[in-house]
Design a protein that fits this description.
By secondary structure, the protein is of the alpha/beta class. The chain has helices spanning 3-14, 17-24, 28-42, 58-83, 98-103, 105-115, 128-136, 182-186, 198-209, 223-231, 245-249, 279-289; strands at 47-49, 54-56, 90-97, 119-126, 142-146, 154-169, 189-192, 216-219, 237-240, 253-255, 263-272. Helix 1 crosses helix 4 and helix 6 packs across helix 12 (279-289).
């Protein structure tokens, strides 16, 4: 592995010679020497320096892009060679959308650690769009998402299905055992997730399909906050049954009987096409499919 590229990548990301020296356990003059050597080899200046900042110029941005790819390929090569003679091991970067990450993934990870303790999972939780973007940029190795995230670079495979219900607080005036009408739903405040969320997309599709125009809509950034809002009587929502099982059991949330519900949606695995996948990723994917 070319140490010059390692040092350059760290300086580019940290925008500091001193912070790079600290991170790589090197002296600051040694960091400067590596950068000067790389610039001399390429015959061009890569970084603009001042007393206050270090920034990449256009040439630096080009080198940084390829350095990331070279170093990522080197790491992948090491993993794949190690896989030939060892049990699954090493770091596995997993991305999951919120419903999956908060309500399904912990059980899968517990099973993963029980069977393959040498695998070290690194977890990123975000909405569906965020997970898709991170996979596209190779910031994660595999993504578990709600709904769809289509891209020509990805393969996508359903691993589970989900049911979504309209829910209300215990003291709601809406009919719980009877049928809530479209007119009833339009009179309510709807609490929904942020843009880019798979759950929000289902809500928007449902409202459009049934020509529902709520009198008021509130946007919250997490499912937990939405549930607390529903419990307090702030409004109604449409959520996965996975997310409110405990609240139903405790009588804090009620499912409404509404035409067109429950709504079925899929949970999917997304991966990058045409890449060698380490054993750690394969065994994790198999555990996900066993759910």
């Amino acid at each position: 592995m070319d140490q010059h590229l390692v040092v350059f990548r760290e300086v580019a990301e940290r925008k500091s010679f001193s912070r790079t020296a600290e991170a790589l356990h090197m002296s600051q003059p040694a960091v400067s020497q590596y950068i000067a050597s790389l610039e001399k080899e390429l015959g061009v200046r890569l970084l603009e320096r001042s007393n206050k900042f270090v920034e990449m110029n256009k040439a630096g941005e080009i080198v940084y892009k390829y350095a990331q790819e070279i170093l990522r390929n080197y790491d992948q090569m090491q993993i794949l060679v190690s896989d030939l003679k060892n049990d699954p091991s090493g770091e596995l970067k997993i991305g999951a959308s919120y419903t999956i990450g908060e309500y399904l993934l912990p059980k899968i990870l517990a099973r993963l650690q029980e069977r393959y303790p040498q695998i070290v999972p690194e977890i990123t939780i975000g909405n569906t769009d965020e997970i898709g973007t991170k996979l596209l940029h190779h910031e994660i190795d595999i993504g578990l998402i709600e709904g769809n995230y289509s891209h020509h670079q990805f393969s996508e495979e359903q691993f589970a299905s989900d049911q979504m219900y309209i829910i209300a607080g215990e003291g709601t005036s809406l009919q719980i055992d009877g049928q809530a009408s479209i007119e009833d739903l339009e009179k309510e405040t709807w609490i929904i997730r942020e843009e880019g969320s798979g759950t929000r997309k289902v809500v928007e599709d449902f409202l459009d399909m049934h020509h529902i125009k709520p009198k008021r809509m509130l946007t919250f950034g997490s499912t937990q906050t939405i549930k607390e809002g529903v419990e307090s009587g702030l409004g109604i929502s449409l959520l996965s049954s996975l997310t409110f099982a405990k609240e139903i059991e405790l009588g804090r949330i009620q499912k409404l009987s509404v035409d067109g519900t429950p709504i079925q949606r899929k949970f999917s695995i997304i991966k990058n096409y045409h890449e060698f996948h380490p054993k750690a990723l394969d065994v994790f994917e198999n555990l996900v499919k066993q759910i």
